[in-house]
Amino acid sequence: MAGPLPLGDPAPADGRLPSDLPIDPAVPFSAYLHVPFCRVRCGYCDFNTYTSGELRGAKQEDYASTLISEIAIAERVLADVGALRPMDTVFFGGGTPTLLPAGDLARMLDAAASAFGLVDGAEVTVEANPDTVTPEVVRTLADAGVTRLSVGMQSAVPHVLAALDRTHRPENVDTAVAAAKDAGLAVSVDLIYGAPGESLGDWERSLDAALALDSDHISAYALIIEDGTKLARQIRRGDVPTPDDDLQADMYELADSRLAAAGFEWYEVSNWARPSTTSGTQHDNRSRHNLAYWRGSDWWGFGPGAHSHVAGLRWWNVKHPAAYAQRLAAFDSPAAGTERPDDEARMLERVLLLSRLAEGIAVADLPADKRSRVAGLIADGLVDPAAAVHGRVRLTLRGRLLADAVVRELTD
């Protein structure tokens, strides 16, 4: 289970939004549908997820109907403030969304589409554990309107998967990807590097296996040790070593090199996609849903612990599935708290997120008293001088490795 929810103001029981929200109908709208169930909790994970023994009366078989109740609330409150718009993207995340019957995921998607509508060419993604993907599952998802499957591969090396407490069989990644492609779905593959005991050779083996799948999108995330996780406790006890920062940097450089050689382009620090061969946003191989987060679009997060953002207002739901179900059974909003960040906080977040993108952030969008620091970042090899000439801060490869330091320099 994840850590505590943020501090904030109490959320209204009816879920209403302030009437003075500066709604911009041109800002894209997305939906995130959280499925908080897992068969086994991975040792590194601090997401808001629950195994069967932790549900305390919440029932997986009731979950789709419960979440659909929140969709009805969202439709009403967004309409009340003039913020009802069709969805550009939908993302089923978790947890393991594919632990639910594919028909349940289809019902949730249909309810959201009925409430908000979908733009032409909308991107609809489902995260999947390879062991839960069958041809029947992906056909049902494709028939329901899903366009993209994000497969949690993590590694192709058994001892690395064991270190991460991943229980899927590596060979099932191949069959899951093949089934998704046969159903006409786009495929993304997720990898993690820097696990205890993982060598550079192990990582290269995983990259080779991911590239052999011939997907159009690959995410590669450095393992981060989160407080409260099993892995953090193991490291604290000395049972496993702390991830080596230098080795992780070598792994990142290897990933960027191998992916570039295979025709992938980085578009966010941890994400690469093959350029589209067909014009039009519906053929964009990047994760448009994640781009919506990084660019500060509007989204509603459905499910326990999910976070939402509309026109600068943020709120988050109660964490436990049982509490979430109880709120909705009483026809109350599941929102636990809300906040409206001030201009300084929003500026910090904007720099933090946009600087991670290949498109970068406009120098003019930086705090006025920090713009002169761009020259020093260029001198240090962290920012691309050619992009800076055209008024944008774009990270170099070295800058991507030190992205947090760049953000501090531009905001502190």
From TrEMBL:
Pfam family of the protein (one): Radical_SAM
Matches recorded under SUPFAM superfamilies: Radical SAM enzymes (SSF102114)
InterPro entries: Aldolase_TIM, Coproporphyrinogen-III_oxidase, Elp3/MiaA/NifB-like_rSAM, HemW-like, rSAM, rSAM_sf
Domain called Radical SAM core: residue spans: 23-265
Keywords tagged on the record: 4Fe-4S, Chaperone, Cytoplasm, Heme, Iron, Iron-sulfur, Metal-binding, S-adenosyl-L-methionine
Broad class of the protein's primary localization: cytoplasm
PROSITE patterns (UniProt xref): RADICAL_SAM
GO cellular component terms listed in the entry, alphabetical order: cytoplasm
Any single GO BP term: porphyrin-containing compound biosynthetic process
Keyword Cytoplasm: yes
Domain of life of the native organism: Bacteria
Compartment(s) where it occurs, according to its Swiss-Prot or TrEMBL record: Cytoplasm
GO molecular function: 4 iron, 4 sulfur cluster binding; coproporphyrinogen oxidase activity; metal ion binding
Family: Belongs to the anaerobic coproporphyrinogen-III oxidase family. HemW subfamily.
Function: Probably acts as a heme chaperone, transferring heme to an unknown acceptor. Binds one molecule of heme per monomer, possibly covalently. Binds 1 [4Fe-4S] cluster. The cluster is coordinated with 3 cysteines and an exchangeable S-adenosyl-L-methionine.
Protein name (Swiss-Prot/TrEMBL): Heme chaperone HemW
Phylogenetic placement of the source organism: Bacteria, Bacillati, Actinomycetota, Actinomycetes, Micrococcales
